[in-house]
Amino acid sequence: MLPALAALSACSGVQSALDPAGEEATQVATLFWVMTVGGGVIWAGTVALALYASRWKRHAATEQGAGRLIFWGGVVFPVVVLTALLSYALWLMPSLRPFGGEATQGLRIEIVGNQFWWHVVYRRDGAEVVSANEVRLPVGQRVEFALESADMIHSFWIPALGGKMDLIPGRTNRLSLLATKAGVYRGQCAEFCGISHALMAFPVVVSEPAEFDAWLEARTRPAIGLDGSPAAARLFVDRGCGDCHRVDGTEARGTAGPDLSHVGSRLTIGAGLLPNDDETLARFIAHPASLKAGSRMPAYLDLPAAELAEIAAWLKGLQ
Ligand SMILES: [Cu+2]
Q1: Is residue 90 located within the same domain as residue 191?
Q2: Rounded distance from Cα 298 to ligand 1 centre (Å)
Q3: If you measure from the C-alpha of residue 159 to the centroid of ligand 1, how many angstroms do you get, rounded to a whole number?
Q4: What is the pLDDT of residues 57-86, one digit of tens each?
């Protein structure tokens, strides 16, 4: 009973393919239920027949009668049922991968998978907004994704919105999603890519188009809190953080790590690892690998606590 309950509790919530909030995910969920019910009916029929056979008083069946049973029950029935289920699945396939064009209203999101974080670029009407480890989408608008990888094969999967698609080095894969319900969901890398693969997730925020537009527009400018602490901004560059991270409006121009231009406004840090606040930021910066094995960011255990707190507070202020 308990394992069954535990299994079922995974069927709702922010990362469930059975609790769809997008057009593609709804089709996947429908396909799942049709296949499950179809399989269930056949299973029940088989069990009923087996029970019937085990209780059946022996009486001679004619060879003709047995032949008829085998023909209808063993050939016609499975062929009809399997053809129907397969045709239904094949009929759904083209609509599960609808592509771009004018239907996407010009919003394109490029995702680059890295061990173990996501580089995210929004493009619309020539504007470019760089972010990381979080995806924001307008509700009711089709969005096109271009998926690439910088190292391993990763897989981009937002179960509540649609099916998964691999990120393959040297290739650009395309995916399109239409979110139908506003809310906060969770995406996850779905292809083993190294020791912290399981910790390579990201929040997905689906909001009303006007809210999304305002959010995107604000991201085209340097963060509000950029001048909050000139000392911390200086430290960030002097300590080499800027060699790997970009912060719009400063000298920090690195690309080996996530863009931190508006990191303070993200829901999580470390790709869905921890809630985003001063304390978790400081912990992550001091020793990423103790929170996330194999993390490509070096430890900063030699950084004085006061400097660490100052940098963390400044980053949290980058809204
Ligand atoms: Cu992975």
Answers
A1: no
A2: 20
A3: 15
A4: 777 778 888 899 899 988 998 899 889 989
